[in-house]
Automatic annotation (TrEMBL):
Organism: Kwoniella newhampshirensis
Descriptive protein name: F-box domain-containing protein
Taxonomic superkingdom: Eukaryota
């Protein structure tokens, strides 16, 4: 007699339920560094099969409690529905939430909204991932004295299960305010994506050389998050292991950022991105990733001589100085700060046959072109291995990272090659190996305006360094 679903044991039914919910296929965190601009994977539909299975009989309804659910808040009405109509069991089952409520121009109290929002989040006791593209609290640009920067964190840990937080709001002021409001309320937070763009008006004495009145250093924005955490948890270290940072100022020295993040002693993964203004394929102005510095490798009798430069200094200095700065991060495992690597030759251009090229030479032209690229890439990878080795010798905990190369397509479009490296055992010796094939990243993909709008609503304008 064939068995029916209800004949199966509770254990097997729970197993079936686990795979009926597609949440298990999505990593946690589901977001990456700022140059990754994949669409959000938070999708309330992931659990529809699970919930349908749950609705088939009383036994399954009892066994398969609502869990690993996704939710999206798209407007303020959604918030009201979640307060009034959604069952408590469902609230308790939400694992991932995206808040994407556009800013409102209505005369509303942001204090009321903030308390409503934090109260709703407090009801989501299983919430592990929170992504915020827009949160409707912003009053900047309205000549309005009510400011998110003045909001206070409620006196409870209202994000008790949160491990992953991505703040992607466009307003620079709110992007700076939200980590200070949310991180202290999340005692288990391990992965944080934030912008350090901060557009608080400064004293005249603090103005930067370029006359930009609305920037403060990225390191200060990071330190402010740490200070907010310590006010709430004076005895505990922040548990953050992963930091995806978008810097406020491309010309800022990475050293001040690294000094600031050393307040997070459990930090293992550090990705730092800077952005600059450029034009998209359709000639629109976009904010695309920009390098934070260049490592210049020139051949020397002992291998490669390494010099480092970023645009806040006018001179090059020996690269060895840089890894020494990293030594204040004793647990650092992964490091990508978008350093460009350049060797003493440019990437060879592809060679094409012309109408004057004898057909008999076509094959050898192709071979020459391919060989030149192989030689170039072997030398580039060798230089990158030397750089990675210099870093791992200074910071033994470091196990992987990436270097960047700027290159151009046939149509003169700039693209980025991202070369990852990893420490592996070769002939019994641990050493960094650079990948064979880089990841190709277009400017359009690596473009967003997270935290990039000024208080007047305009996008911060910064020319590209490279
Ligand atoms: Zn704002």
């Amino acid at each position: 007699m064939p068995k029916q679903l209800v004949d199966l044991s509770d254990e097997v039914l729970l197993h079936i339920g686990h795979f009926a919910n597609r949440d298990h296929t999505i990593p946690l965190p589901s977001f990456g560094p700022h140059w990754e601009n994949y669409p959000s994977e938070i999708d309330p539909g992931v659990a529809s099969d699970y919930m349908a299975l749950r609705g088939t009989c009383r036994r399954l309804c009892r066994l398969l409690v609502p869990k690993n659910l996704h939710a999206r808040l798209r407007n303020w009405d959604d918030v009201e529905v979640w307060f009034t109509e959604v069952p408590t069991s469902v609230l308790k089952g939400v694992k991932r939430l995206e808040i994407n409520i556009p800013r409102s121009h209505a005369e509303e109290l942001i204090v009321t909204k903030w308390h409503t929002m934090s109260a709703l989040l407090a009801n989501l006791i299983s919430l592990e991932e929170l992504i915020i593209p827009s949160i409707a609290l912003c009053r900047h640009g309205n000549l309005d004295s009510r400011d998110t920067i003045n909001l206070k964190v409620p006196a409870t840990d209202f994000l008790p299960s949160l491990t992953s937080l991505s703040i992607q709001v466009k307003c620079g002021n709110c992007a700076a305010a939200l980590p200070r409001l949310l991180v202290p309320a999340a005692p288990r937070l391990r992965h944080l994506r934030m912008c350090t763009n901060q557009t608080i008006e400064e004293d005249e004495d603090d103005l930067h050389d370029d006359g930009d009145q609305s920037s403060v250093k990225s390191g200060e924005a990071i330190t402010a998050v740490y200070t907010a955490w310590k006010e709430r948890h004076p005895l505990d270290k922040p548990p953050i292991e992963t930091l995806y940072l978008r810097l406020a100022r491309k010309e800022e020295s990475c050293a001040s950022v690294i000094e600031a993040v050393s307040d997070f002693p459990k930090l293992r993964n550090l990705h730092v991105s800077a952005f600059g203004l450029t034009r998209s394929r359709s000639n629109d102005k976009i904010h695309a990733i920009n390098t934070l510095g260049a490592i210049i490798a020139t051949p020397s009798p002992t291998g490669w001589e390494l010099k480092f430069s970023n645009s806040d200094i006018s001179d090059y200095y020996p690269f060895e100085v840089y890894p020494a700065i990293l030594q204040c991060l004793p647990n650092l495992t992964t490091f990508d700060s978008m350093f460009l690597v350049e060797i003493d030759q440019p990437r060879p251009c592809a060679t094409y046959a012309t109408q004057e090229t004898p057909r008999s030479l076509g094959a050898s032209l192709r071979r020459l072109s391919a060989n030149a690229t192989v030689v170039y890439e072997d030398r580039l990878r060798d230089a990158m291995s030397t750089i990675a080795r210099t870093m791992t010798q200074a910071v033994p905990s470091l196990k992987n990272g990436a270097f960047w190369e700027a290159t151009w397509t046939e149509g003169k479009r700039m693209i980025w090659n991202r070369w990852t490296w990893e420490v592996e055992k070769v002939d019994g010796v641990m050493k960094p190996l650079v990948c064979e094939t880089p990841e190709c990243i277009s400017r359009e993909f690596a473009s967003n305006i997270d935290g990039a709008t000024l208080s007047d609503g305009y996008i911060r304008l910064q020319p590209m360094f490279h």
